[in-house]
Amino acid sequence: MKKELKGQIIEQLTAQLEATPNFYVTDINGLNAEKTSALRRACFEKGIKLLVVKNTLLEKVLEKGTEDQKSLCSTLKGSTALMFAEAPNAPAKLIKEIQSTLGKPELKAAYVQECAYVGAENLEALINIKSHDELIGDIVGLLQSPARNVISALTNAGGGKIAGVVKTLSDKE
To answer: Where in the chain is the domain with CATH 3.30.70.1730?
Structure first.
């Protein structure tokens, strides 16, 4: 491979990491063409970009990154494929789903929400990570809960006492 081509690939990988900071380093070694095609199709359906890379080029990109990104260099052995996604847990869910039928990909490492996860034992933890939208939904639900309790107490048949207190306070003004 020519030096100019390597430079272009490094630039493209760097741009991809900046555009989509959540990525998974996986091992797809041993998949035949049919299984690789099935994996790519499943990734496309879930909005995940799958990219097979040379370890040396990815290592050069990661060396320019944060300390957590540099820690992923130790996992770059054998065949490596990167999975990029906006939702931080989407590749982890796909890996678990696809492993039952294809046996691969295997998780080597992941860089999700500015944290490095090294090793396949972190797959369950990565599946349980909530996306930005899920976290906002949880916060809104928590904020609405006390208001719902007050409103239901006021409108309930047993809430006559509370309604009476509110009416008495408003009459005093």
So the answer is: 3-129
Q: Is the pLDDT of residue 158 over 60?
A: no
Q: Is the pTM of this model over 0.85?
A: no
Rounded CA-CA distance 139/118 in Å is 30
pLDDT tens by residue, 124-153 = 888 887 777 777 888 888 887 777 776 776
User: Of 3.40.720.10, 3.30.70.1730, 3.40.50.20, 3.30.1340.30, which CATH number belongs to 3-129?
Assistant: 3.30.70.1730
What does the alpha-carbon distance between residue 101 and residue 82 come to, in Å, rounded to a whole number? Answer: 20
How many Cα atoms sit within 13 Å of 159 on the Cβ side? 11
